[in-house]
Specification:
6-stranded antiparallel sheet, 9 helices
Length: 445
């Protein structure tokens, strides 16, 4: 433990002691420390370099079955912060499910998941990387302008102390590169991008490669057409398939189930995906973006099967939502300035047997979606309607680009009609391959 972590732990422990002395029956305190440095460029010129640093504390206090959460800069005076939290709790409505985590579930040791890389990158080096990204993208024939490029490095840390006996800390580093460019001119312009984000600097792709892909993606979108209205198989590129699986994760979040605002609320034990597909949540994977040695309440997580061979098996739970549903926490609590709520960690979808190219060949005629537009997803009913851009699939090959097209369906039916490719990308907290929905309604010409 370094001196900075020890300082923040001491501060959190003092908050807990003060809260108990002020009349709280229980309390927990989380201190989030973050610092970042970044540079952005456009058309070969530096637009901005910035750095930031913050240390914020979130104090949650319990008075009987009443609970309140307050947040502030860690440098704020402890006394007024604690007094405000306890006073708010005393006048809050009772919550029969609010409590600290079960002490028997708390993590009792520090687990190293290799989430921190101490590599320091100075602003000048970040500028060089951003310029290299943009240069590579603009070198692609057909690219006519730039939306800019950026490079950044950051570190975030969490210190958590509870009156129930937990004390722990974790740190995470982040290194990222991104670039966006424009092809064509006038009303025929198209924009696309590419990026990479990693926990360890050495894992980042070369800036020249990221920039090249961004340029090629953008040029390929030139000259889009509409497609005839009808029903088509829809193939989701991994960029957008992660969002589709994210809807499943949102629909089985314990908070949505408790509020009865999910189209899957009555589907526990039923088939929601094809029997060839499973979804797991893996909090303890090394060097993965969603990993955490303990959750926002200090509970040690373990692999959790959400969907097994198509059948829904688990909700995503923290302590309060678990109690409300008559279940135990499965260590999926996350913290924010507003308190504690359940969330997933590393969501992993079972890959299929086909590579993406073979999945497209098998599709014959359909639409390959690379971008979704709008927010037309209703997780209460499952209704799904989004604008899309992508490419027409003809004779099993990607052909001309398409845009100004809307796809529509219902998530419950779409999920049962999925076919997965085998191209898992483990950089993201949702690891989903290329996915095909058997048929959806398409509104075009």
């Amino acid at each position: 433990m370094d001196d900075e972590t020890r300082r923040l732990l001491d501060a959190a422990e003092r908050l807990i002691a003060s809260a108990l002395a002020a009349g709280a029956d229980a309390a927990d305190a989380a201190v989030v420390r973050s610092r970042s440095r970044g540079a952005s460029v456009r058309l070969g010129k530096v637009e901005d370099t910035e750095s930031s640093e913050s240390e914020d504390v979130s104090l949650r206090v319990f008075v009987g079955r009443r609970v309140a959460t307050v947040s502030a800069d860690i440098r704020a005076e402890i006394g007024p912060l604690v007094e405000r939290a306890v006073a708010m709790a005393k006048v809050s409505p009772e919550d029969p499910f609010a409590s600290l985590a079960d002490p028997a579930l708390l993590a009792r040791d520090q687990l190293d998941l290799d989430l921190f890389d101490p590599t320091e990158i100075e602003s000048a080096a970040l500028v060089e990387e951003a310029l290299a990204l943009e240069d590579a993208a603009r070198a692609i024939p057909g690219v006519s302008n730039s939306g800019g490029a950026g490079a950044s490095v950051g570190v975030s840390g969490l210190v958590l102390v509870t009156s129930g006996g937990f004390s722990g800390w974790r740190m995470r580093s982040a290194f990222s590169r991104s670039v966006s460019v424009i092809a064509g001119d006038g009303v025929k312009m198209q924009r696309d991008y590419d990026y990479d984000s990693r926990i360890h600097a050495a894992d980042l792709e070369a800036s020249a490669e990221i920039g090249r892909r961004a340029g090629e993606r953008t040029v390929r979108r030139l000259g889009p057409r509409k497609v005839p209205t009808g029903r088509y198989p829809i193939v989701f590129d991994p960029r957008v398939s992660r969002g589709l699986i994210g809807h499943v994760v949102g629909a089985i979040n314990g908070a949505a189930i408790a509020r009865k605002t999910s189209f899957l609320k009555d589907r526990m034990g039923e088939r929601v995906l094809p029997d060839t597909m499973s979804i797991t949540d893996e909090p303890l994977l090394a060097r993965r973006s969603g990993s955490r040695a303990f959750d926002g309440e200090g509970v040690r997580g373990a692999p959790l099967t959400l969907v097994a061979n198509g059948v829904l098996e688990s909700w995503i739970l923290d302590t309060a939502t678990g109690r409300e549903l008559g279940l135990a926490s499965n260590a999926r609590a996350s913290r924010s300035s507003g308190g504690v709520s359940p969330s997933s960690t590393n969501v992993v979808v079972t890959p299929g047997s086909l590579d993406p190219e073979a999945l497209v060949r098998e599709t014959g005629r359909g639409i390959y979606v690379t971008e979704l537009i709008g927010q037309g997803v209703n997780l209460v009913t499952g209704d799904y309607s989004r604008g899309i851009s992508g490419f027409m699939i003809e004779n099993g090959e990607l052909t001309y680009p398409v845009s100004e097209v809307t796809i529509a369906g219902n998530l419950a039916e779409m999920l049962l009609d999925l076919t997965a490719a085998n191209d898992l990308d483990t950089r993201y907290s949702v690891v989903a391959p290329t996915l095909r929905v058997g048929t959806m309604t398409v509104a075009g010409d």
